[in-house]
UniProtKB/TrEMBL annotation:
Its cofactor is Zn(2+). It comes from Tepidanaerobacter syntrophicus. This is Dihydroorotase. It catalyses: (S)-dihydroorotate + H2O = N-carbamoyl-L-aspartate + H(+). Its EC number is 3.5.2.3. The keyword Ribosomal protein does not apply. Keywords: Hydrolase, Metal-binding, Pyrimidine biosynthesis, Zinc.
């Protein structure tokens, strides 16, 4: 059955498009896009007042399957993603066992395919068992569909292993994504090292714990002429390092999360474990530098680093609580309200960082509504005012510091390959 999306404001940064258009979907693909498409026999979805964008892509999530299904599984994660407007997510391999071989890559892919709500792009481990000693079977995993490699949750501390992995992955046109953290400087840290950590008597994580590893990765990428991607940048210094490296042609890319763009270390006041995340929330100077990095192109992608945990892992003393924030169902609303409206990032730029930006970093298809592309589409109601209610999440995780926040703008319909994977209650006419 053909579908005709009528009268939406269509934003497709890759085509430099921002105007009222109709979109015709046939056989799961974009069949036509134009001023006023008239065709008989298509299901018409009237979208006046709505924004239509390419399906959102999140290149950094944790779905916890296999091994930690009590935190999240591929089904609950997929539903959460679709509800947040996402059509593709790249899943980190810090599961149990870690995704360090082709069979496990196949497993998560087939689980997601059987659920059919999301395109799951598996990220394989850099090192066997994420132990940081021996390089994992990167080639095998790449040929089975791993889109990138990372030991996320942990850094790749051994610089020689990192250098080998970056060069090896480049032979398959794949990148290494590094969680940048100097283990000795991080040691026992709980929140950003600064005023609040002193006030709360919590062990601090200095900015240089991140920046040293960002610099190291840039130096390796430069020397070997290969690419590297920096996960969740949180400091002004990291943004500056990446900006300078890009300006001299180093193949470095990076990403930032809504929580690092919007919140500061103050969120941990009152020992709020829902604001405990790694890397930690930093200072106003850092959030401003991250916003600047989005505006000037230093930051390539907005990611959630969706990191669900069980209530029992958060409802404990601060230093015993797990690091992580769930993000799939709040990301778009937070970005529209606080990064576009408040901080003045251009809407099309923000959409780019959530679609074509990450697609370019990973070298995958998607992130555009060009004719012939898969009909992965997000419908946004830019005027819908709503309140974050963690108890309504599709995710099993409730660990958000944004509960109760009032936001404006929300994904109200998500389509993957032309099939509706999510409809908001405000769009009950469609299913
Ligand atoms: N970000 C986090 O605080 N936690 C992540 C790990 C990670 O992204 O490093 C997790 O897996 O829980
Ligand atoms: Zn990480
Ligand atoms: Zn992560």
């Amino acid at each position: 059955m053909k579908k005709l999306l009528k009268n939406a404001r269509v934003i497709d940064p890759l085509q430099n498009l921002d105007s009222k258009k109709d979109i015709l979907i046939a056989d799961g693909r974009i069949a036509d896009i134009g001023g006023n498409i008239d065709i008989s026999g298509a299901e018409i979805i009237e979208l006046s007042g709505m924004i239509v964008t390419p399906g959102l892509i999140d290149m950094h999530v944790h779905f916890r399957e296999p091994g930690y299904e009590y935190k999240e599984d591929i089904e609950s994660g997929s539903m959460s993603a679709a509800a947040g407007g996402f059509t593709s997510v790249a899943c980190m391999p810090n599961t149990n066992p870690p995704i360090d071989n082709a069979a496990l890559v196949e497993y998560v892919k087939s689980r997601a395919a059987s659920i059919g709500k999301i395109k799951l792009l598996p990220i394989g481990c850099v090192s066997k068992g994420q132990e940081g000693r021996e390089i994992a079977e990167i080639g095998d995993m790449a040929s089975c569909g791993a889109v990138a490699f990372s030991d996320d949750g942990k850094p790749v501390s051994d610089s020689s292993l990192m250098r080998k992995a970056m060069v090896y992955a480049s032979a398959f046109d794949k990148i290494i994504i590094d969680h940048c953290e100097d283990s000795a400087l991080f040691e026992g840290g709980q929140i950003n090292e600064g005023y609040i950590s002193t006030l709360l008597g919590l062990s601090g994580i200095p900015a240089c714990a991140e920046e040293i590893m960002v610099a190291r990765n840039i130096l390796i990428a430069k020397e070997m002429g290969v690419a590297v991607h920096i996960a969740h940048v949180s400091t002004k210094g990291s943004v500056e390092l990446v900006r300078r490296a890009k300006s001299i042609g180093v193949k470095v890319t990076c990403e930032a999360t809504p929580h690092h763009l919007i919140l500061t270390e103050d969120a941990a006041m009152g020992y709020n474990t829902n604001a405990k995340v790694n890397p930690p929330l930093r200072t106003k100077e850092d959030t401003e530098a991250l916003i600047e990095g989005l505006k000037d192109g230093t930051i390539d992608a907005i990611v959630t680093d969706h990191a669900p945990h069980h209530i029992d892992e958060k409802d404990v003393e601060f230093d015993k609580a797990a690091f992580g924030i769930v993000g799939l169902e709040t990301s778009l609303g937070l970005i529209l309200t606080h990064v576009v409206e408040k901080a003045g990032v251009n809407l099309s730029t923000a959409i780019y960082k959530m679609t074509a930006g990450p697609a370019a970093v990973l070298g995958i298809e998607g992130g555009t509504l060009k004719i012939g592309s898969a009909a992965d589409i997000t419908v946004i109601d830019p005027n819908l005012e709503w309140t974050v209610d963690k108890n309504k999440f599709f995710s099993k995780g409730r660990n958000t510091p944004f509960d109760g926040w009032k936001l404006k703008g929300k994904a109200v319909m998500t389509l993957m390959d032309g099939k509706i994977t999510y409809t908001d209650e405000t769009m009950h006419n469609y299913s």
